[in-house]
Amino acid sequence: MAPPGCCVLRYQARGQKGTYWYYKLHATEPIFPAAQPEKLTKYKHLGKAGTPAHVNAVISVARRIQIDYLQSCIDSLRQNWVDLYESLKEKK
């Protein structure tokens, strides 16, 4: 599962033979290991479309989105229950 706040981004690289599209996992804050020891970065290179790293990242971001949505539904239900409980308590 992807960390909270991550998304898969596409970027363009130009080489001698043309233009290529690559993908990276992007986080809102530095969480991925960088090339330099003990440093963190916001980006994790995934490679071309269809590579195992790219496919796994897309699936993990989709799972994170589902979990975040379910958590917001649970939070909303809890708040509704608290509001309902308090209104019933006031009526008594």
Number of helices: 1
Instruction: Give the overall silhouette.
Output: elongated
Order of helices and strands: EEEEEH
Low-confidence stretches: none
Rg value: 21 Å
Mean residue pLDDT: 92
Strand content: 25-35%
Major β-sheet profile: 3 strands, antiparallel
Provide the helix percentage. Answer: 40-55%
Total E-strand runs: 5
Give me a quick take on this structure.
The protein has one helix at 52-91; strands spanning 7-15, 18-26, 32-33, 40-41, 43-47.
What's the helix and strand layout?
Elements: E1 7-15, E2 18-26, E3 32-33, E4 40-41, E5 43-47, H1 52-91
Antiparallel strand pairs: 1-2, 2-5, 3-4
Structural features:
about 90 residues; alpha+beta; three-stranded antiparallel sheet; two-stranded antiparallel ribbon; about 45% helix
Verbal overview:
The chain is α+β, with helices and mostly antiparallel strands and 92 residues long. It has one domain. 43% of the residues lie in helices and 29% in strands. It has a 3-stranded antiparallel sheet with strand order 1-2-5, covered by helices on one side. A two-stranded antiparallel ribbon has the order 3-4. It is elongated, with a radius of gyration of 21 Å. The N and C termini lie far apart (46 Å).
